[in-house]
Design brief:
The chain is 43% helix and 21% strand. It has 15 helices and 15 strands. The two termini are 30 Å apart.
Length: 374
Amino acid sequence: MAGIYIHIPFCRKACHYCNFHFSTTHSLLPQMIEAICSEIELRKSYLKDSIHTIYFGGGTPSICSNEQLMSLFESIKTSFVINQVAEITIEANPDDITMDKLLFWKLLGINRLSIGIQSFREEDLRWMNRAHNAVQAIDCIKLAKKVGFENMSIDLIYGTPTLTDEQWEENVKQAIELQIPHLSCYALTVESRTALDKMIQLKKTEEPDPEKQARHFELLMKWMGDAGYEHYEISNFAIKGRRSQHNSNYWQGEKYIGLGPSAHSFDGHSRQWNIANNALYLQSIAANQMNFEKEELTPTQTLNEYIMTSLRTIEGLSFEHIRNNWGNEKKMALQKSMEKYLIKGHVIMDGFGIKLSKSGKLLADGIAADLFFI
């Protein structure tokens, strides 16, 4: 179930909370598309497997012209074997979504949209410095449905200073009423060297309230469960058959190649990541070279990654999988470490392994980190 990720490092505006690699200056976009096509050719031997998922992320890939996306598709299809029923996703911002683009995306073979809504409220969008408004947030979804995009996901952010419990419920209800099949919901985080970080330091805005964020998450789990959504990963909810295959492959340790500046790749044994600098990336590709860092993973690292990712999913952690891949000693040690979380009710044990309870999901990262092997 190998996948391809393409990073388009350009956005129309810099959202206050975002620390992803991107530029708001688009003069290098045409050159970047050509360089990514060249990288595809340079690295076509990285994956031998048939490609089951393709994901255009960023940045904001929806700013690309039809011709630019076609160039990327042609390069991918020339260099890789694409499964006939591959999930092909493009991240899109509401202000980029037009009838022309939607029709062309379908013609290319894109069959899934991931739309950066973040909120249906004007006040929230202004506070985040988003490029779209509340009207566009709803209109783009209706337009996508009209064109025939049935497989669709939206992002929502909770726990912001501008969002009350009642307003958060309105956001979630709006998504449910629009019959969005997949939601990715994230608590606002303050990343270093972002505009939000600086605003907080200058006392221009409040810090996120951890208690409110926890409350918003608990309410979210209830509302989505009542609406029939499957909480299949800590931040992700889907109706039956609409899980994100691409992200699920990440969580299951499948192989993938990342193309473009800052993009990460995994071949089953090592991880590597391209330089997060547009100019240096372009310079290296022009010289037919790759500028990246690489890390060979130790058995302990792969075990810890499995603990972290599996605990975030609905399937949970399998003791048999740990015994088969890392030995019975590691399995027994992990079971011993789990005991305190069983007593507190943060994890649920069945005959196969453990899963996080609702209270455990509030502490997912901390529990995983505590269970890591050194």
